[in-house]
Amino acid sequence: MSTTTPAEELAGLSATTLLRFATAGSVDDGKSTLVGRLLHDSKSVLADQLEAVEHASRSRGAAEPDLALLTDGLRAEREQGITIDVAYRYFATPRRRFILADTPGHVQYTRNMVTGASTADLAVVLVDARNGVIEQTRRHAAVAALLRVPHVVLAVNKMDLVDYEESVFAKIAEDFTAYASDLGVPEITAIPISALAGDNVVEPSANMDWYGGPTVLEHLETVPVSHDLASCHARLPVQVVIRPQTAEHPDYRGYAGQIAAGTFRVGESVTVLPSGRTSKIAGIDLLGKPVDVAWTPQSVTLLLEDDIDISRGDLIVPTHDAPATSQDVEATVCHVADTPLTVGQRVLLKHTTRTVKAIVKEIPSRLTLDDLSQHPEPGQLVANDIGRVKVRIAEPIALDSYAASRRTGSFLLIDPSDGTTLAAGMAGEAFAAEPEPAAAAADDEGWDF
Q1: What pLDDT is stored for residue 85 in this prediction?
Q2: Does residue 361 or residue 337 have the better pLDDT?
Q3: Distances from the Cα of 38 to the Cα of 116, 132, 263, angstroms
Q4: Angle CA 325–316–286, to nearest 5
């Protein structure tokens, strides 16, 4: 019987590291079953949840609980036996806490994988051992590379249906690793599993004694998670200016927001963008108390020595590490709306807490994820397309490259008429190993800003 108190257990849990990971795989590769098995075998399923799954499984004529139902929560998903939306799950083991994004497998839901993997530290890509690496597998690897996901796990599923043959696993692992490495994926770990039987998911498999690597859960618990944003370029997007103007704080003026990256210190010289005005940090308030140092992802209020004009959307950065500002943005975008994105279209560009008017100047190319070929000058991007765009914005912004910072190198393009998100953008080069760029087109004429 445990002698620890709930408070002690909570303190121990908060001390564990957090891993955000996303799963992706083609339809019927067993992705939801893998997630269900992971939750079930790691004792992360509540009794009433398991009872509901058992009841639903019996009503469908299944002799054993269908663990895929633990994640396929939408009625349409359960009726079709597929995943059509991003399902987030939160669970923990004694070694680590997890946020899991279970993403769809259909080609038409590629945009959902972009959503789920955009903040992931690791992506689990499932492959059916009977089918090997297919076009959708390559598409998922390309999306993981585009989003700069630092760790990729290749889970070769349904090994029980190929008699647990080592040669089958080795061939798939070789094909996938070669393709993903060419895209610049920094780390790839291949694991042979059977999600249905539980082989190498949480417990080691007795059927694959030729495999000496970790199980899926063991790898998730031990993979290095370098949340090194504290050592990145320091950036604080201002969310709100705090001026209580009370008898107790008559002259208080603070600039509040969540630190997107890096570390700020009292006495440090800072620059406010896009104005370029400079000052020094006079104080930092964290949870109502003064501190000398603050780092990402803490929410803080900065006090500056000088009274300068700062408002929501401005970016506070170290003076010695200030990014350049520009009204021209070139980036890779994933189009997520049902309506197309076209050359000349007026949009809003949202970067951190700043939203500015913009015009799509060019769409130089659309990427074919199957073979990474570039389709030049497509004229528009439709749902699930990934392509290069050039955007002219009404006011300068300080946009880092996505390779340097996934937080401050990303942005959204928004429809100004109804607020619909049109595309998710990643500034700078598309891949770590960049394919040949498409030929540049001539500039459009008639800009009004």
Answers
A1: 55
A2: 361
A3: 18, 22, 36
A4: 160
Confidence of residue 49 (pLDDT cuts 50, 70, 90): low
Q: Side chain identity at 278, as an amino acid letter? A: T
Q: Are 105 and 197 in contact, with CB atoms under 8 Å apart?
A: no
pLDDT at 415 over 90: yes
Confidence of residue 113 (pLDDT cuts 50, 70, 90): confident
In a 3-state reduction of DSSP, which class is residue 128? strand
CB 433 within 8 A of CB 184: yes
> For residue 181, what is the enclosing H or E element?
helix 166-183
| C-alpha span between 365 and 343 (Å, rounded) | 12
Q: Residue 358: in which H helix or E strand, if any? A: strand 354-368
Tokens of 9: 């257990």
Q: Token pair 């590379």 is at which residue?
A: 145
29 and 195 in contact (C-beta within 8 Å)?
no
List, in sequence order, every residue forming a beta bridge with 315; answer none if it has no partner.
237, 273
Answer whether 258's CB lies under 8 Å from 287's CB.
no
The answer to whether 318 touches 263, Cβ cutoff 8 Å, is: no
Tell me which H or E stretch contains 326.
strand 325-335
Nearest to 387 by CA among 341, 356, 444: 341
* Cis previous bond, 237, omega within 30: no
Query: What amino acid is encoded at 17 in this protein?
Result: T
- Judge whether 39 and 91 are in contact, CB under 8 Å: yes
- CA pair distance 83, 245, nearest whole angstrom: 52
